[in-house]
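[09:14] KT: can someone run the structure on this one? pasting the chain below
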Amino acid sequence: MEKRRHHPTSPTWATATLFTLLTLLAIGLLPSCDYDETVETCPVSVHLIYPDNSIEPYEGARVEMKDATSSIYVDSTDASGTARFNLPPGLYEATTNSQYIDSTGSSRWRYIFNGVKSLIVISPDSTNRIELTLKMSKKRIVE
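[09:31] RB: done, structure tokens below
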């Protein structure tokens, strides 16, 4: 006795294949129905620590927070030298690179500040207060 095989173009094979594909599609779509698109964020403050005998904190210094996926969040400092963010939990790096020109005395000076801090863990159960110590270069401006 000869066994019958279903040919790929037979109606039974086509129906079974269509049913399987539709079932897999329906199963794949079910979890997406309950997807919540809100992202939890954490308040974060980055306070710049200026070197002794340099300048007082000032408003407008740029501060960047970069996460592990290379997303960059940017803010500027307030008059107390603090930048404030709302960031998703994760691992971050804080950086700043700013210039300040002091022309209050008889000479004008250019201050260049750099700072970086890596491996910062941001989480909902942490204080998320970061102190970023700055390095400084100072140059007299001659006119």
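[09:33] KT: thanks! Residues 11-33 form the longest helix (23 residues).
[09:34] RB: yep, looked fine to me
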